[in-house]
Specification:
It is built from 8 helices and no strands. By secondary structure, the protein is mainly α. The two termini are about 25 Å apart.
Length: about 140
Amino acid sequence: MMMQYAKLTPTLWEIGKQEEVDLGNIAWPMLEECIRKGKAMYKGANGPIEDLVPDYEALKKIREKESCDEERRFFIKAWQGKYKTLCELFRDRKYLDMIVLVGGEMARLAATEGPEERERYERHKRELEELAKKWKAEHKAEH
């Protein structure tokens, strides 16, 4: 679920922009409600571009099957800790960079939790690398 949360970063910013609300106190709960309900419910909830439309139904099913409290906590810490940089990346429409930055920070935070998190960290790191390669191959003109 860690990777899925990282992929939601641009959508969180888009909800904040479209709804003209604070990210932490309003946009984040709105995004979580979309996940709980399994559908986009707010302006911006379909992400800033078509490639980043969240699959809320799939995210809802994942959350129903497993606890995502740790991933949620890492996601919040990661984007709050990188807020200024993420704002600049969003402004410049560098959505992959947002995902990679937050995903990397989430993985780093998870790795500091103890040795049992190391395997999860490595798996997440590989997923981020694969995503970056795929994205860059599909969007060569933009990079």
